[in-house]
Amino acid sequence: MTLLDVRGLTTAFMTGRGEVNAIEDVSFSLKEGEILGIVGESGSGKSVTALTIMDLLPKPPARIAAGDVHFNGQRLTGLNDRAMQAIRGPGISMIFQEPMTSLNPVFSIGDQIMETIAAHERLSKSDLRKRAIDMLDKVGIPSASRRLDDYPHQMSGGQRQRVMIAMALACNPKLLIADEPTTALDVTIQAQILDLLMDLRDEYGMAIMIITHNMGVIAETADRVLVMYAGRVIEEAPVATIFDHPMHPYTRGLLECVPSLTEDRPRLVAIPGTLPEPARRPPGCRFSPRCTYAVASCSAAIPPLEALETAHTAACFRARELA
Amino acid sequence: MTTPLIAATALSKHFEVGARGMFGLGRTATLKAVDDVSFTINAGETLGLVGESGCGKSTLGRLLLRLIEPTAGSIAFDGNEITRIGRMEMRGFRRSMQIIFQDPYGALNPRMSVEDIIAEPLVIHGARPGAETRAKVTEMLGKVGLPARAMDRFPHEFSGGQRQRIGIARALILHPRLIVCDEAVSALDVSVQAQIVNLLQDLQREMGLTYLFIAHDLSVVRHISDRVAVMYLGKVVEVADKATIYAAPRHPYTQALIAAVPAQHPAQRSRGKRERITGDIPSALNPPSGCRFHTRCPHVMPVCRERAPDLRETATGHQVACHLTDS
């Protein structure tokens, strides 16, 4: 069953150079229990997409210029603050890249987890405490009842991310949005956190939207993948398809420019040029100035996201011919 | 045997950390950021240095250039002992040793033009700004793939990748022999990272450079390095040529580190298939006794808690510090 449905979502920001669309015409959906990976580089709009869904962007300068978000059959776009607050937590929860800045340094982690639960459920103090200990246990914090009174600075980066996950899961959300959840962590800790997210999905059946710039994180976790570039979705497919038959030249480039852990390659296949800033995006296909396959028509119009095979879409005029 | 370009012997850097508190109470502790580390880098080669946060890899890079002074041990540059020489004498060697930093935003002075940034090392080493330095800056800009007109612009006008090119041009203008690349590509987007990696390799070939390539990304390190050293809590635990260390790592920490790298294809997902090390990296202020990895090691033995293993050669060019390989 479709849990989240995003249609034509366009979020604009007021800047010194006028209004700029951070994301444009973003559409996708997410089923119950599914893990959707959203991959992209700086300025691709992956975080803005998540923050728009959660209604966490300051308005102004942000504004939803077009499109709709439906969650569990309910329209979220246009919901007032109070109604949206009821969705955040039990409906959709979010974890961020930097667990240190997302936790309040002057409250114990127990207080912060209990505060989250208390905002949505009426429970006695002792029940709240029990639930918080239970949550810390679930996310693999050893001797949870003792750690409950610790402050964020007393924990390592990996443990803080576990605490963030505990807070996010405290109200049993149907969807967890994880925005670069392991980017600030060391690789051995990253592996532990990704394992934990997968375990939690299997156990509780929640859907996860995992946002990352790392194709490895996508390979490890996602069922389906959305590739974003300069504010637009440029390809979408099941995870194996993205890795085996990428259709968009950008997706191919993204896969090729990562060095191998097992093979020697004389030279990396780099994508020339740099990512365009939101206010200075090129006309037509935004990837065209960096694309080896670009032809004149590529800079004339924005290629639409077209279904090329079942469950596989790409936004490239030459996708069929190059496939 | 030829003299290595860099030979570090029993190098240590200990920091006194003031846990003195607000009223001068409490006591100081010693943080052994780098502890008794020995290694060599041959001319023209790239030694990759990997390890997780706090393992001491950046401190080690700065020690080599004497940007910080070692607590003990010595460094020889091309056969010359440089740890105990004076400032002026060190200056002569500094021309030959440069560093490229991680953050292309923080490493460039925003008020200086690109020309002044790149020419600064020349000026420090006695050149007078003028047509000659300008010509050298133009040449370096060309080498790093930037147009000559970039010279009159300022850092904020450039993207992260372009700024890193400016940092590389500055490091190379004195034609050094050794470059310490301290997480030089870590902050860049992957599509841009590949460009900079290629550029570093081209420049190495062209200018005969030797690199100490410090990074936490194991696949980038494999790609660019000839040999790789792995650090854990201030100690080098394994050194080998890259093919060996990635295909047949001997130290349990190296094994765990490589096993933790995310799969490059969904068919190779690691969950449930690869052994994971549990727990966090212990604090460098209070490192475990004996082998520092023993608290997380799946093969821990009683001796590991008591005695630190020495870094020993187990095969030609392959050094491991582990009691398992000692017997």
UniProtKB/TrEMBL annotation, chain B:
Membrane topology according to the record: Peripheral membrane protein
CDD domains: ABC_NikE_OppD_transporters
Signal peptide: none
Ranges of residues in domain ABC transporter: 17-258
InterPro entries assigned: AAA+_ATPase (IPR003593), ABC_transp_ATP-bind (IPR050319), ABC_transporter-like_ATP-bd (IPR003439), ABC_transporter-like_CS (IPR017871), Oligopep_ABC_C (IPR013563), P-loop_NTPase (IPR027417)
Molecular-function GO term, any one: ATP binding
Main location: membrane
Keyword field: ATP-binding, Nucleotide-binding, Transport
Pfam families per UniProt: ABC_tran, oligo_HPY
Subcellular compartments: Cell inner membrane
Family: Belongs to the ABC transporter superfamily.
UniProt-recorded name of the protein: Dipeptide ABC transporter ATP-binding protein
